[in-house]
Sequence to fold (219 residues):
Amino acid sequence: MNVAIIPARGGSKRIANKNRKIFFGNPIIFYPLNTLIKSKLFTKIFVTSDDEKIIKYVNKKFPKIITIKREKKYSTDKVKTITVIKNFIKKNIKNMKIKKICCVYPATPLINKKNLKTGLRVCNKYGRFVIPVIKSKSKNGNLIELKKNSIKKLHLKNNKSTYLYKDSGQFYWGTLNNWIKGKSIIDKSSKCFILKDYEAIDINFIEDWNKAKMLFKII
Fold:
């Protein structure tokens, strides 16, 4: 059994109510949920949120998707994604016969079936966390240097290397054991695969939102 978990908290500092903000006529969370259903990769899809409006929308639009209210203490921007997923597994799906879990972020309108399938294939092969990455145009920040699609170095700053990448901010595949016992999603044991520049943008600022709209139109 493969399951998907979408952690869709209500708060957002830089873009108000980002995870339910309207994007071309639909709350932005519509697009990854629709893609997950069409991919046919998942026996169950879960949305965990502290936002009643998100839960109400998902229940109405996607009645087969399971929504679970998230505790406030796991709904701040200071809580790591792996902590949210660990807690969700422990309380809701620990006893299910799960093979792989895919954590998918809600503000990902560019996500597609092909990349989800690639991530699952890599996870099946190596049994590690799998992170889709994109080339970084900046040499600063939390960056990744790759060697044969494995992470060579992490969190490089002011690096002169030509080929640096960053987390695409779309999704992570992992085994049940990865999620339960892992301390970090991205470390030197993780596997990566590279997305095309137009396939992903990590939406944190309004400039990112506008760029995502431009790319969405093109695609």
